[in-house]
Write a structure and sequence with these properties.
The strands form seven sheets. The protein has a seven-stranded mixed β-sheet with strand order 17-18-16-15-19-20-21, sandwiched between helices. A four-stranded mixed β-sheet has the order 3-2-1-6, with helices on both faces. By secondary structure, the protein is α+β, with helices and mostly antiparallel strands. It has 19 helices and 21 strands.
Length: 482
């Protein structure tokens, strides 16, 4: 490997799988390869739904062993979930899954102390029943929390196991609903009012900060030669994915697609209006002082659950058949919390269509088309509303993440939004992870430099809008009028 090319291991953990990618970065090159991919299967125990975090850590170690020599390691994952450590630094049980039922009815208890309007004005975070704030409130009287000396968000927990050092990376901390997006620090007054001890959290880290060196035991297990630094990246996978949006300038929207669709804008300051709260937009922190102003949409979770229920049919053939189903026959609200829990997804989608007086999709192709039309419609609504609420207008929509491989969804999103869609890169979170590590070595400059490098080196596909915008307005009316 050239002395001017460095290798970075990007540990990228999604809600259904994890991967260790190796990014090789030079002055005008960026190549990403997969070292190891492994499943992320939650486990339902008598206590509820839990993450198999030990299995994930084993996957990380296997991936680092497969990666070979690297100059740095960075970890990103999904948001909000955490592990609790005792005074000896030992994990107190498997982390609770955000889809666990323990937070049902908890938001109302929080709002009794801090009304929803005040909570949004202080943190800018959309209501989601699984936000860390609600999880901590639900756990208030648990034995685990009573014995906890430290709380580490998932990527920080794995970093701790790799290095022995504790920290709380800022972009992920901003999803806890305990951070003020204006000061980019903890909201101390809010936490005090809600009885949450912020001393549980390790000190805040910024993307690019050092996070320690791989421990001797990790070096021995992975076969790596030290010292190997671990670098704090945008450890919320959406922060890393947005950093890897290959945009030119500021007039763009993005949709990070995968289990969730995160649709929105990159801004310089949060939008904390009551209208923004009512529209359920969130203000999460990004790289270089940016704010990710976005809405969470249920995403390809809907299709993943249906495919699982159908016995895992071949996805390519299913999408081809769905493309032949008439467009917009039936749509559902892809942001509806009714679709949050696993199980019976085809039946629940059919029930939603029946309840709104629309034709009921029956075959897998019909249900798939309903899902994709519904996601495109949700993307349209989110991007339209974000532009209006932030007074920030866009000329193009960038789709990144796993959904870029779904050409039908990308085309439908362009049609629905009435804007060109540029799809790619698919492994955006891993690429954003790599770019932050490369910055620490001086191989990449600011956010704009990294995005220009991506545009030159990554495969991108452009979709032009087609069809009649009035059909999408009519479909939206079916949901809003219902």
């Amino acid at each position: 490997m050239s002395a001017r090319v460095k290798a970075y291991a990007a540990v990228d953990l999604g809600a259904s799988s994890g991967r260790v990618m190796v990014g090789r970065v030079g002055p005008d090159s960026l190549e990403l390869t997969e070292a190891h991919r492994f499943p992320n299967r939650p486990v339902r125990t008598p206590e509820g739904l839990r993450w198999d975090v030990l299995g994930l850590y084993a996957g990380v170690l296997d991936g680092l062993r497969a990666a070979g020599r690297v100059d740095s390691v960075g970890i990103d994952s999904w948001a909000v979930d955490y592990g609790l450590l005792d005074a000896d630094g030992a994990l107190l049980g498997n982390p609770v899954h955000y889809r666990d039922s323990r937070t049902e009815g908890i938001a109302e208890k929080v709002w009794a102390t801090v009304p929803a309007q005040e909570l949004y004005a202080a943190t800018g975070l959309q209501y989601a029943p699984f936000n860390t704030l609600y999880q901590l409130t639900a756990a208030r009287h648990s034995a685990q929390l009573a014995h906890a000396e430290r709380l580490l968000l998932i990527p920080d927990l794995l970093t701790y196991w790799l290095t022995g050092e504790q920290g709380t990376e800022l972009t992920n901390a901003s999803t806890t609903q305990l951070v003020d997006p204006r000061t980019r620090d903890w909201s101390y007054d809010l936490a005090s009012r809600l009885g949450i001890d912020l001393h549980l959290f390790a000190p805040l880290r910024q993307p690019g900060d050092p996070a320690g060196l791989l421990r001797a035991e990790v070096l021995e297990e992975t076969g790596l030669t030290g010292p190997v630094p671990v670098t704090a990246v945008g450890s919320h996978d959406t922060a890393s994915a947005v950093a890897a949006v290959p945009a030119d300038g500021e007039r763009f929207a993005y949709i990070c697609t995968g289990t969730w669709s995160l649709a929105g804008l990159e801004l310089d300051a949060p939008v904390l209006t009551e209208e923004s709260r009512a529209a359920n937009f969130t203000n999460e922190l990004g790289l270089d002082g940016t704010v990710r102003y976005l809405r969470n949409i249920m995403g390809l979770w809907l299709l993943q659950e249906c495919v699982r229920a159908w016995g895992e049919p071949e996805l390519g053939a299913l999408l081809l058949e769905a493309g032949r189903v008439p467009a917009l026959r039936s749509v559902v609200d892809a942001g509806d919390a009714a679709f949050l829990a696993p199980g019976r997804m085809p039946e629940r989608i059919a029930e939603a269509c029946r309840a709104s007086g629309q034709p009921v999709p029956v075959s897998p192709a019909e249900v798939t088309r309903c899902i994709l039309d519904s996601l495109a419609l949700a993307h349209r609504r989110a991007i339209d509303e974000a532009q209006r609420l932030a007074d920030h207008h866009v000329d193009v929509v960038h789709v990144v993440g796993g959904g870029t491989r779904n050409a039908l969804l990308c085309q439908l999103t362009a049609d629905a939004c009435g804007l060109p869609v540029v799809a790619g890169p698919a492994e955006a979170a891993a690429l954003g992870n790599v770019l932050v590590q490369a910055r620490t070595h001086g191989l990449v400059g600011d956010l704009g430099d990294g995005r220009r490098l991506l545009t030159r080196t990554q495969s991108l596909t452009r979709y032009e809008p087609r069809g009649d915008a009035a059909r999408w307005r009519e479909a939206e009316a079916r949901l809003t009028d219902g």
